Amino acid sequence: MKKAFFITLLLLISLGCKKEIESSVKEEVSSTKKNEFAIIIHGGAGTILKKNMSDEKETEYKTKLEEAVKVGYTILKNGGTSQEAVMKTIQVMEESPLFNSGKGAVFTHDETNELDASFMDGKTLNAGAVAGVTNVKSPIELAIKVMTDSDHVMLSGKGASEFAKEKGLEIVDPSYFYTERRFKSLQRIKEKEKTALDHDDKMAVFYDSDIKNAKFGTVGCVALDKDGNISAGTSTGGMTNKRYGRIGDSPIIGSGTYANNNTCGVSSTGWGEYFIRNQVAYDISAQMEYKNSSLKEATKDVIQNKLTKLGGTGGVVALDKNGNMSFEFNTAGMYRASMDDKGELVVKIYKE
Fold first, then answer.
1. Is the pTM of this model over 0.85?
2. Distance between CA atoms of residues 352 and 106, nearest Å
3. Residue 100's closest CA among 255, 225, 270, 230?
4. How far apart are CA 177 and CA 94, in angstroms?
5. Can you say whether the dihedral through the CA atoms of 66, 248, 316, 253 is positive or negative?
6. Does one domain contain both 273 and 296?
7. I need a surface site. Which of 146, 210, 320, 331 has the fewest CB within 10 A?
8. What is the pLDDT of residues 309-322, one digit of tens each?
9. Number of structural domains the chain divides into
10. What's the pLDDT tens digit per position in 93-144?
């Protein structure tokens, strides 16, 4: 009896030591600096299939993603701040009609463009955001200006535009955001919506693939600079055919954007309502802080487990305090790119 007791005791001690060693090893690995600086971006997630993409269009997307990420990389390499890197990188995508942000923003039901953006500083945990902006050329620049030059975190609509004018940001005519491709997309959805409603089939409207995928297409960036500061930003035109001043996750701190120097930075893209309900960006940081999860473990759990179980679709790009990077999405594809401190470039579109 005594022998059995001592054997059991030894096993328990052994298991305890093993767990302690494993925990110690994990902590040591997680505290290892992988990159002195790094940058990661996305250009939206959704049903992006190679069979539906021409070689020319694929090259166009990859070229623009490479251009954008290299802008931020150069800033970081030369000792610039993560804030500047995030803003300049996102502005490249905001000025491209390829993405649902800035110039390529989707149309609302009323055939206007309403832009949202947010930014967060991982060092101070300060943040800025704008929603429903219609005439500011660079929503991400305005979001940063809200953070640096106001007492607020989020401004919306006419008030946000008035603030932008006072701060000297570039104001454009709303027609600047018009693209034929996005306008035609709205008309197709409206026609399908009308047909379905004419047949009293409201569920057909919701489940139509074109309408569901109209929720996707945001741009975002997370950067870590040489001083160890993380910044994250997100910019979007929102959801095609949106009504009633709908606002998604992109301008909401903790949902579409989050950054904390102690953990990580995150930018989200996808079905915004689900990202809001899950507080996706913050949840990733919280799991790293409170559960000691690695960046990969946290992003995988939040996107592939929590978000998916609730019915949400989309993804995130994330970067932790040690320069580890993660692309995580539960859709067929996500426009994405990254560069590390060694200059290694990654540009991808489809799930691999």
1. yes
2. 28
3. 270
4. 10
5. positive
6. yes
7. 210
8. 999 999 999 999 99
9. 2
10. 999 999 999 999 999 999 999 999 999 999 999 999 999 999 999 999 999 9
